[in-house]
Amino acid sequence: MNICLKEVSFTYQNHFTLNIDLEIPANSWTMIVGKNGAGKSTLLKLLAGVIQPDQGTLSFGPSRVGYIFQNPDDQIIQLSLAKELAFDLENLGLPVQQIENKITDFLREYDFQGRSEQSPNTLSGGEKQRLALASTLISDPDILVFDEPTAFLDYRQKEKLYQKIEMLKKNKSILWVTHELDELFLADSIIEMEQGQISFKGSREQYLKRLSEIPFIRKHYLSCI
Amino acid sequence: MHLKINHLEYQYSNNQNFKLEIEKADVFLDESLGIYGLSGSGKTTLGKIMGGLLKTTAIDFFGAEVLYLPQVAENLLLGTSVRQTLKIISEWKSRTFEENFAMHLQKFGLQLSNIENKHGFELSAGELRIISLSLAFSYETDILVLDEPSIGLDWSARIELIRQLQNFKKPLVLISHDYEMLRKLCARVWIMDRGKLVFQGDFYQLEKNDKLCSETGINFYKNLVKKRKLLLS
């Protein structure tokens, strides 16, 4: 089912207004880009249900949304890695044995073997983001709403995540905010935001062509190594 | 400026899985030092030790004042609003502090008058990052240690950060997994791996070590850049 935002608006304390009219096809990977303060995270918070629109409607059928916060500290709430991974599964009412098996698999897949009882407080920034990703993906949501999910990750973990999402995108809708130029190549389509509005929406090829014509980008992002 | 480490060992009381252990390191900070490594390798722990947030006697800056800017920028707002934070810092810094702060903000494309009355939760993560960087640049210290300074910055703000760091007159220690930024800014690089310092040298020496480049994701980054060049040119 497509994700539909119809004349949605949201205002933060009279400082900032978001106005969005948007339809995103199901089972596709959409990257959201834009300057700091353009409203990217606000759009994701609306999609994830963290905030409610002042006006307009939002629909995506009976799909379940998995949300990755920009700051992993805001997301992690449990006192051990295993409990953090179990949280969504327990809420979904899965059998205990199934939860335990899944946790074992995910601890291994995300390089946390033997650390199930460790407190998330003791993790590094990159490890916290890895845990946030694992504990969101473990419950297999239909729509993935990711706010800079790789900002704290090292290149090895980025590579792993790109491969994983490439596999998942066949039957999931992915909305992903990024500042990483090199991540645009993964997307099917790209949305650019500016001052609370959508300033571009189109295919990856169209957007990359646009980017390649900007002298600033050519100068600073093609002249390295 | 001179940094010396001798038998540095550090372990958190609530985490037996990690131990920072650096036998010896000696570096003159006349040029910027980059610290790179995978997540959990001990970069931030070392940064906090450099900044004096974690106590040990095994590290010596020979009396220089070190300012450490943490990875999570929100933690830096001391008061309830930007204006109040400025007021608190101005009480012990010089009168020019606010002027400098406003100038650095402007370089990043932010106006002090637009954000001064905002509280932390009304600012985006990128804006908070720019505020924290501008605070650090305006705070006159001998050595500046920045932990993942490029996280959360948009394309142009990231380039502006690199430009400001290139023109920064004081010694810098940059902790980051943004290899491209480190390569542009640092003359020397340290690689951390599971709590140990496994490489000290320059980028030329580092990139000759294919095994290390592969293990630390540098080769993956290089492939991304190749792809970028192909698709954008």
What keyword list fits this structure?
heterodimer; A: 225 residues; alpha/beta; 6-stranded mixed sheet; B: 233 residues; Rossmann fold; 3-stranded antiparallel sheet; 10 helices; 40% helix; 21% strand
Topology:
The complex is a heterodimer of chains A (225) and B (233).
Chain A: E1 3-12, E2 16-24, E3 29-34, H1 40-48, E4 55-59, E5 65-68, H2 72-75, H3 81-91, H4 96-109, H5 125-137, E6 143-147, H6 155-168, E7 173-177, E8 189-194, E9 197-203, H7 204-212, H8 215-221
Parallel strand pairs in A: 3-7, 3-8, 5-6, 6-7
Antiparallel strand pairs in A: 1-2, 1-4, 8-9
Helix pairs in contact in A: 3-4, 3-5
Chain B: E1 2-10, E2 20-28, E3 33-37, H1 43-50, E4 59-60, E5 66-69, H2 82-90, H3 96-107, H4 112-115, H5 125-138, E6 143-147, H6 155-166, E7 172-175, H7 179-185, E8 188-193, E9 196-201, H8 203-208, H9 210-215, H10 218-232
Helix pairs in contact in B: 3-5
Q: Can you describe what's shown?
A:
The complex is a heterodimer of chains A (225) and B (233). Chain A is built from eight helices and nine strands. Chain A is of the alpha/beta class and 225 residues long. In chain A, helix 6 links the parallel strand 6 (143-147) and strand 7. In chain A, helix 3 crosses helix 4 (96-109) and helix 3 packs parallel to helix 5. Chain B is an alpha/beta fold. Chain B has two domains: 1-64 and 178-233, Rossmann fold, CATH 3.40.50; 72-170, P-loop containing nucleotide triphosphate hydrolases (Rossmann fold), CATH 3.40.50.300. In chain B, the strands form two sheets. In chain B, strands 5-6-7-3-8-9 form a six-stranded mixed beta sheet, with helices on both faces. A three-stranded antiparallel beta sheet of chain B has the order 2-1-4, covered by helices on one side. In chain B, 42% of the residues are buried. The chains are: A alpha/beta (225), B alpha/beta (233). Chains A and B meet through helix 5, helix 6, helix 7 and helix 8 of A and helix 5, helix 6, helix 7 and helix 10 of B.
